[in-house]
Amino acid sequence: MVRGYLMAVTDINDERHIVKTYSSGMINNHGLKGRAKKSAETADKVKKHNQKVSIQNLCWLMQLNFEEGDYNLSLHYYANGDRPLDEWQAQKNVAAFCKDLKKWCKQNMPDGYFLDYLYCTHTTTARGAIHHHMILRKDIPLYVIQQLWSKWGSVSVGRSLYKGYDYYTLAWYWIADPKHEPHPKGMRSYIPSHGLKRPVTVREIVPAKTWRINPKAPKGWRIKDDTIYNGVDVYGYPYQSYTMIKISDVKRI
């Protein structure tokens, strides 16, 4: 009996992300290799896989909710000021800062306005300096942001977001850059504001005969250069992923 594989499809703006894989009970005799040796199933591989998924999810969250011109900020603490003792205390500081931002928005923005943001807390390995990175909608004047954070420190502005921005590298930096100390146990890698749009992934079982090492894009789409990956997942099953772009938007990339 012909069996199928699992295909997961996630649409993010003008891109469509495809992941194909087999799981136990779906291996078939259509020329695809089955499960790899059990030695491949290591805790380290699972950890790396989970981190890769976290980076991709953060990347998609950034793409769905932020746009050209939005702020890419770093929040620093005064060198001679009341610096936080640890990341837990630092998280409370930035949470209080966000509360101040919301209060300003309530007083100055139209009714129904929601403050969209993402932030993370880092400790640099070299100097032990605690700081925050934040993506924030451009609706709030920069001087307001600087004024509200001034009770703790200074604000530096990185390269603003724009169409074609490399969100994946930014997400990797937030989650996996080795120059940062590991977070304390139980601390989240990043904090999103309430109400952000979340990526929706549709999964279905697809006939095995449709698996192609070199996939073809359906009408109206093209496969993004250098995104096709063929390999195995953490459990040794065949795995494929790639990204497609709507043809109507190709010329603007």
Rg from alpha-carbon coordinates: 22 Å
Uncertain ranges = 25-34
| Biggest β-sheet description | 6 strands, antiparallel
Number of strands: 11
**Element string (H = helix, E = strand):** EEHEHEEHEHEEEEE
Query: Beta-strand percentage?
Result: 15-25%
* Global geometry: globular
Distance between termini?
Answer: 44 Å
Compute the average pLDDT. 89
Helix content: 10-25%
Give the helix/strand class.
Answer: alpha+beta
- Counting structural domains, the number is 2
Put simply, the count of helices is 4
Structural features:
alpha+beta; Alpha-Beta Plaits; five-stranded antiparallel beta sheet; 4 helices
Descriptive overview:
With 253 residues, the protein is an alpha+beta fold. It has 2 domains: 4-42 and 198-252, no CATH class; 69-160, Alpha-Beta Plaits. The protein contains 4 helices and 11 strands. It has helices at 43-65, 87-108, 142-149, 167-176, and strands spanning 4-12, 15-21, 71-75, 117-123, 130-136, 155-157, 191-192, 201-207, 221-223, 229-232, 238-246. Strands 1, 2, 8, 9, 10 and 11 form a 6-stranded antiparallel β-sheet that branches. A hairpin with a 6-residue loop joins strand 4 (117-123) and strand 5. Helix 1 crosses helix 4. It is globular, with a radius of gyration of 22 Å.
